[in-house]
Design goal:
The chain has about 200 residues and is an alpha/beta fold. The chain has seven helices and five strands, in the order H-E-E-E-H-H-E-H-E-H-H-H. About 30% of the residues lie in helices and about 10% in strands. The strands form two sheets. The protein has a three-stranded parallel β-sheet with strand order 4-3-5, sandwiched between helices. Strands 1-2 form a two-stranded antiparallel sheet.
Length: about 200
């Protein structure tokens, strides 16, 4: 069908994505047990590196996260944005794995270090705080390592709204519900953006 072709090959972003977020507290997160292999174009030379990006049972980079926490586990979370996340680094090269391996080489016999990577590209300090409050603190961390800065600097320059006041938000109604429903499809999304960007001149 036309909808399938548009959705598969020429998708247009959802204009109401901001009010359809599945998690209003954590704006960006990866699904649990994700496994992605990045490959360069076949005609690029010297690009045999094919990094694997994967998430554990809670959607973080790192090994399986057991709850309740084992008594001998020292649990560390890395929180930050793209530098922390290391999207195009293979698991064995990513920050969490390197740190975990190094610490376990020096550990006491009765202790096991586990490092989980909660980094997500594009996040700001308000995202980090929300992730800590609504997700990480419930997972019994012993230590949190935070790496942030540049995204907040750029956000401040662009007058990012850290308070998240939605002055343009309309109260939920039948009209809002219908708009949310129809914008799940590609053709209405195109009509929405067309009508929004067309300027009528007399």
């Amino acid at each position: 069908s036309v909808e399938w072709v548009l959705r598969s090959f020429l998708p247009v972003r959802d204009p109401l994505k901001g009010i359809k977020q599945p998690n209003s507290f954590i704006r960006g997160e990866f699904i649990p047990n994700l496994h992605v292999v990045f490959k360069a174009q076949s005609d690029w030379s010297g690009t045999s590196y094919e990094p694997v990006y994967q998430t554990n049972n809670y959607g973080f980079r790192g090994s399986y996260l057991a709850m309740p926490k084992p008594v001998n586990e020292y649990r560390i979370f890395l929180v930050g944005s793209s530098t922390t996340e290391g999207l195009y680094l293979d698991e064995k090269d990513a920050l969490h794995h390197v740190l975990e391996s190094d610490m376990n080489l020096r550990k006491p016999e009765e202790r096991e270090f586990k490092v989980y990577n909660a980094g997500r590209s594009g996040h700001h300090s308000d995202d980090h705080i929300s992730l800590l409050a609504h997700r990480i603190m419930q997972l019994e961390p012993d230590m949190v390592i935070l790496l942030c800065g540049i995204n907040d600097l750029l956000a401040a320059i662009n007058r990012y709204d850290y308070l998240h006041y939605r002055n343009d938000a309309e109260p939920f109604s039948l009209r809002t519900g219908l708009k949310m429903l129809v914008t799940e499809f590609q053709i209405p999304r195109r009509l929405f953006w067309l009508l929004k960007n067309v300027k009528v001149t007399s």
